[in-house]
Design a protein that fits this description.
By secondary structure, this protein is α+β, with helices and mostly antiparallel strands. It has helices spanning 2-5, 20-37, 41-55, 80-98, 138-154, 162-196, 219-230, 235-252, 254-259, 295-302, 305-326, 354-367, 382-391, 397-400, 411-418; strands at residues 61-63, 207-208, 211-212, 272-277, 283-288, 337-342, 372-378, 403-406, 446-450, 454-461, 465-468, 471-474, 477-479, 487-500, 505-513, 521-529, 537-543, 547-555, 561-573. The protein is 37% helix and 21% strand.
Amino acid sequence: MADETKQEAAAPAAEVVVTEEEKKAEETAPVAEEKAAEADSEEEKKAEEAEEAAAGDEAAVIDGTGSFKEESNLVSELPDPERTALAQLKELVATALANGEFNLPPPPAKEEAKKEEPAKEEAPADKEDEPKAEEPAKEELKAEAATEAVAEETKPAEPVPEEEEKTVVVAEEEATKTVEAIEETVAVAVAAAASEEPEAGEPKEELIWGVPLAGDDERTDTVLLKFLRAREFKVKEAMAMLKSAVLWRKRFGIDELLLDADLGLRELEGVVFYRGADREGHPVCYNVYGEFQDKELYERAFGDEEKRERFLKWRIQLLERGIREQLDFSPSGICSMVQVTDLKNSPPMLGKHRAVTRQALALLQDNYPEFVAKKVFINVPWWYLAANKVMSPFLTQRTKSKIVFCSPGKSAETLFRYIAPEQVPVQFGGLYKEDDTEFSTSDAVTELTVKPSSKETVEIPATEVRSVDRLSVPVSWIPCESHPHHRRMQNSTVVWELRVLGWEVSYGAEFTPDAEGGYTVIVQKTRKVPAHEEPIMKGSFKATEPGKLVLGVNNPASRKKKLLCRFKVRSAAA
């Protein structure tokens, strides 16, 4: 705990919160953290006790005042002032396109590449030992050679030694070649520029995230509204932000970056990744900076300037691909995402990643407006919550409504408010697993609360009705082919998985037949499950008669527990 108080609140590179107020807040946060670091050991002990208490308290979740609700992108549903602002921005964009304002300025003039010079004649013997003069600039050298050649032509006729005559001829030929080469270069450049320029009256089409900035494409309104909302519908400010973003994308080489299949950072796939969607259909991006506890991984990502630059490109590439592949800019489409940032064991802010983190945050804020529907910070340490109180006055109400902070003890339950448990990865308290052959995200999860000092049961019937040979009959019985009036048993296999967050409960399973006087079968003997046990209990049972499987969870603790369960019943003839 003492070590954590010395850490500075990190601004993770994957955050895509795009408000100017957050920049101010990000600058203010270290002040609070520095004060926290100066606390003596007695205060640290009190803070640790407070953190443990908060882990089981509802107050450990700090949600923005009021829940953020995304505005409509349908022009017909916009208020009149916003519709007017959108029309004005469209006019500014059209004018800027016509004037070429979205084009990068030409690079500064550079000296032409020096061409290979002809083999030099041997210097006269009397000049061999003279020190070599400093070579003039290329253009000056050629001009001087041409001038000397002309001067030689205008001199009165004199007997010229054979060697000097050869030198004059070589200089004249070189000057002529130089002029011809320059003329040829200029002609080629003019032709290339002419081929790139659009025809008069037809400005070059500009795209951002695959959407044209002007024209009849309905997605254009959605993109322009993002910039307007980021600048509170101040048209000129939104236009300046849009122009800056387009020019930055060209300087950064976004299009080329998208074509680059691999930046050699596959080991970072567990640091930032997309997984599933929230309850409203927004794709979810997870940022897990605790992965950088691995020192080798940290060095591969931030070891030197070149590696840090590569990490920045990788992060922007990942975001761009997520936008292109998972978002829909049509007026009724999902055009923003949920960001989940795990602060558990995140590296201190004073490491090698500090500069690239700040740079990435600035780029995301300036060039990716309104791409966050909700920002959830999980496993937040107490000192980060304290820093948030200092940051809060600098944030707008709109930004506050998008951000949620929750302590380690409330992280999973907070996530479930926005993301269904079947969509949440196991590492964050959910049931989603890679390469799960039994269940998928389409298999809904039942959520139950096990109250303190009480027992909760889940009953799974093994007598569901299912179609067999085009007839709807009980799953446990099907007609006998040899004697149609008889029935033979059809076995049912029940498959389930169950998880109790934090465990420390007793768990057992038994099968109770429907037949009167039938024997109860103990499927799983009741036992206490410690917190460090496998996070998910899986089981299966083959029923040979109609009945129900009962899963029991007994919570002896003084705090309530969250129980997650899902199951399937499969039928197969005995």
